[in-house]
Amino acid sequence: MISKKKLIVLISLLSILSGCCTENDETSIMTKEKIISRYDSYEGQKKQTFIPNEETKDMNNGVYKRYRKDGSLRSIVPIKDGKGHGIAMYFFPNGQLDFEMEYKNGEADGYCKGYYRSGELFSEGKYKNNVMDGEWKYYNKDGIIIKIELYSNGQLIKEEEIEIKTVNDSVIS
Known about the structure:
Strand content: over 45%
Number of strands: 15
Order of helices and strands: HEEEEEEEEEEEEEEE
Number of domains: 1
Structural class: mainly beta
Shape: flat
Low-confidence stretches: 6-43
CATH topology: Outer Surface Protein A, domain 3
């Protein structure tokens, strides 16, 4: 079974790597403001938008936005030199932040935070060279750490489940 964190990595990498649809199934439109919108089988609804750097109007630098079939925002990814670079944000269909991840030169490299659909922090950790690295913490919806994992170059080297103790329905640390 794929864990949520591995699914997050897979989805984010696919979003960055797949980028746009193929030219065969979409139409690109450039407005005078240099904003590119892409339309495809969503029956004319916007699927992707690229907003170039405001200062340079450079088409390799800016912000890439991707939308769901219903028109809701799926992700916002800053682009530098044609690759993901900066803090990307991915959203649940309800608009709530799903996770945020730092990219450097198109690879996951830096801080990553995942959230429950209701907005509470689910996990946090770091990526280095596109793989999990260092300490990752997982939380329940009450904000209590329930698991800690330690990674080295993408390999899980230690895992600790945290037992939550309660007395009269109150959490004891």
